[in-house]
Each structure stands twice: as C-alpha cells, then as structure tokens.
What we know:
There is one protein chain. By secondary structure, this protein is mainly α. It has one domain: Ferritin, core subunit, four-helix bundle (Ferritin), CATH 1.20.1260. It contains 5 helices and no strands. Helix 1 (9-37) packs antiparallel against helix 2, helix 2 packs antiparallel against helix 5 (132-164) and helix 3 (78-91) runs antiparallel to helix 4 (97-128). It is elongated, with a radius of gyration of 17 Å.
Amino acid sequence: MLFDKLETLDDLLVMQLKDLYSAEKQLVEALPQMAEAAKDGRLRRGFERHLHETERQVERLERIAKDLDVDLDGHTCVAMKGLIKEGQATMSERATDEVMDAALIAASQKIEHYEIASYGTAHHYADRLGHTQVAQLLRKSLEEEQDTDTRLNDLAKNYLNQKAM
C-alpha cells in the first residue's frame, strides 16, 4: 500500500508517479532482452532507441520527484511486472524469426498502451493541480510513448506481420 489513505488528487498524482517510476525502471532492464530477441534489424534498433528514451523518462521522473519533493522509490508496478513476465514467456516460445518479431511487437504494444494510459492520467492530474512544469515533462513522455506505439504499429502492419504469414 502506497498511502494509509488517498485523500487528494495530489496523493493520486504521487501514486501514479511512483508506479510510472517503477514501471520505467523495470522496462530499462527488459528492453535489452527484447532487443536481443528481435531478429529484424529495424525492430532491434527500435527497441534500442526506446531503451534510450526510457532512460530519459526515468530521469524526467526523478526531476519531477525533486520538483515536487517526493520519493518515488519503494514501490513495484505490478502491472509492468506482469507485462514483462508475459513478454519473457513469449520470448521463450519456439517460433520462426518472423513470428517471434510479430509476437515481440504485440508484447511491446501492450506495454506501450499501459504507459500511455499511465502518463496520460499523471499528466492530467499534474495539469489540473497547476503543476505546469511537471505536466510538461509528463506530456513529453506521453508523446514519446505514443510515437513509439505508432512506429511499432507501422512496422507490424506494413512489414513484419506480412513476413510472419
């Protein structure tokens, strides 16, 4: 439990930030495995690019924590833990290279959609509470997640899924 009692929108914002921080730190550990499992060079490079983006998002969250004078450590995002576990199970399946790449994109998009929902919620709370700088930083991460999802979707629809057929 993060709080004895959630009483304010500020409490919810901090709860979202702690969850995002844990999620992103877990993803920093998982993305190299996903990049290694990817057979297609474009997909591998996409995972590597997203790793660098995720590292910057962790730094942004640390900056937000400093600005709000809160500690983001000490919480585990159970949802991300489950999404990563599911992705790892997928990577252990026997599959052709093309099918594995399509499966990696599917697993990645589940993660992206979780992050988009989480950043969108945190951004709204920060904006509503008048934390302008925090809202801007969260909006930047939200836009990065949306762009990553679009790139994955395009790669799947226009190339990898066809190869997997």
